[in-house]
Write a structure and sequence with these properties.
TRYPSIN_HIS, 14-stranded mixed sheet, 402 residues, Streptogrisin C, serine-type endopeptidase activity, alpha+beta, TRYPSIN_SER, nine-stranded antiparallel sheet, signal
């Protein structure tokens, strides 16, 4: 979230429209980012996800990864894999896919229990996750912490240096509102708190009412959102720190802005949303923040992450992803923006909304879309909550095209 005063917000909006658009070489964005090659990889990973859904992830389950390039689902299991896993391998083979079963040293349940114990014990941990192959835990510590303080564990622990911060139209969207649009949070006293991005339109499972999903760190309970023109979007009706999600009382449509950022309002279209899905290590994804525009070539490197973000609190069931081209995957102002995969028919599958970026020196990249100003930074490494956790937290479902 980019913090702005009310006056600064007006000045920044004018500056955004006046600045030149960066070239795609500085971070691929716009409709051309969703190439036939990107869609082909995502179509293969969708098939691999369906194979993974054929078996329960119960006792002994160590983790999963997909390799869409080789059409392979890697399954890690502690002990002998159950019959449903071997049956899924046979189904995959008939479809030209491969399931490889690997031994896991630990189950996901064991590793998650140890991670919870370490967090409760107060170890200086910024983020912690079970490795997808069941081999141990990965921990990240902010600069200045001693690695020895975090490795007191009965399971193998890999300690990495790192630091993350909240990522915190497109520009003037109108009702029914789409994902990927610029939204600005306003406190009850009328003070503009900062600019973020709308996520996905959702539907309340209990009432059937339309809502709009974004990041909880973008606004407090009792606040409300407007577009850049000051037009009312909706008030915060529900907020969950553990999934960095909040629900706005707004009429949404099952579409997401795709294309350039609010820096250039020329090349923007809206694509339909077809559903939602959990995320697996190896998945290829795109995101579409209001400040950065649409970016693809983002691959998942970690799931099941718990990341603690200072006074905001800890976010669970998070995903870590990396831009494989070495460009920016997102930045400040993209918070709450949609993360998704793309089907062959150009329909989108919701995966989550952007929470944080790595601000480790090795991960900082030139920003796509809105340049670095007003404290904005961009990174090749992003973190977002798995959409399944966000939907469960509010008893909603992603709104889909009829």
């Amino acid at each position: 979230m980019v913090k702005l005063s009310a006056v600064a917000a007006i000045a920044a909006t004018a500056a955004l429209l006046a600045s030149a658009t960066p070239s795609l070489a500085q971070g691929p964005s716009g409709p051309s980012a969703i190439t036939p090659e990107v869609k082909a990889l995502m179509a293969t990973q969708d098939k691999l996800h369906k194979i993974a859904d054929r078996f329960d992830r119960g006792n002994g389950f160590g983790g999963l990864s997909v390799d869409a390039g080789s059409k392979t689902l890697n399954v890690y299991w502690k002990g002998k894999a159950p019959a449903k896993v071997t049956a899924a391998a046979a189904v995959a083979k008939a479809q030209g896919l491969v399931v490889k079963i690997h031994p896991a040293k630990y189950s996901q349940a064991e590793l998650k229990a140890e991670a919870a114990r370490m967090l409760k014990a107060g170890a200086p941990i910024q983020s912690i996750a079970a490795k997808h192959d069941g081999s141990g835990l990965t921990i990240k510590q902010a600069a200045g912490f001693s690695a020895k303080a975090a490795v007191q564990s009965a399971v193998p622990v890999e300690v990495q240096a790192g630091d993350v911060e909240l990522a915190a139209s497109r520009l003037v969207d109108t009702s029914p509102f789409k994902g990927g649009a610029y939204i600005q949070n306003t406190a009850p006293d009328g003070a503009v708190q900062g600019g973020c991005t709308s996520g996905f339109a959702v539907v309340d499972n209990a009432t059937g009412a339309d809502k709009l999903l974004t990041a909880a760190h973008c606004g407090q309970s009792g606040s409300y959102y407007t577009n850049a023109a000051g037009d009312f979007i909706g008030s915060v009706e529900g907020r969950a720190v553990a999934s960095d999600s909040e629900i706005l009382g707004a009429t949404g449509q099952a579409r997401v802005w795709i294309g350039d950022s609010i820096e250039n309002e020329q090349n923007q279209v809206a694509l339909d949303v077809a559903g939602s899905s959990a995320t697996i290590v190896g998945d290829w994804l795109c995101d579409s923040g209001a400040y950065s525009g649409t970016i693809c070539q983002i691959q998942v490197v970690n799931v099941g992450l718990t990341v603690c973000l200072g006074s905001f609190g800890c976010v669970n069931n998070a995903v870590e992803a990396l831009h494989r081209g070495g460009f920016s995957a997102g930045g400040n102002g993209d918070s709450g923006g949609p993360v998704f995969s793309v089907q062959a028919d150009n329909k989108l599958v919701a995966r989550g909304t952007l929470t944080a970026i790595s601000v480790a020196a090795a991960d900082i990249r030139p920003c796509s879309g809105v340049p670095e100003r007003n404290g904005r930074k961009c990174s090749q490494r992003i973190i977002f909550p798995d959409v399944t956790a966000q939907l469960a937290a509010h008893n909603v479902r992603v709104k889909t095209i009829s």
